[in-house]
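Hi Prof. W.,

I finally got the RiboL-PSP-HEPN domain-containing protein prediction working! I wasn't sure whether to trim anything, so I left the full sequence exactly as given:
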Amino acid sequence: MWNRRVEIVALAESTEIIEISSDDIPLDGKTIRPEHFETIWGVFGFSGSYMPSPRHALALNNLADSRNTVAHGDEVPERFGRTKTATDISRLLDLSEEIIIHLIATIEKYIDEEDYKR
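And this is what came out:
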């Protein structure tokens, strides 16, 4: 689905008619993962890495896997919560915040340097 969205954006300056179906609208409810950031970097042509570090990608995947485990009923939330320490949660929050800061800084640089003008 994301590849289709990249195709649509790539055709934005084309004279070709673009048909967009409801399947192309991002309503899939997927839990965000590093691959989503990689796609964003590809679509906009952002410079640099899409993740601050490999550790951040691991943390984001861990968060997504954990969320899905509970959301799909494979683990009871209370039981799952007992497997995490306050330090684990704090570390995960810090890494998540760093990912968001990295994204915002990349967007600001993209705008400031007018990289959208090609």
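The chain is about 60% helix and 0% strand. Does that look reasonable to you?

Thanks,
D.
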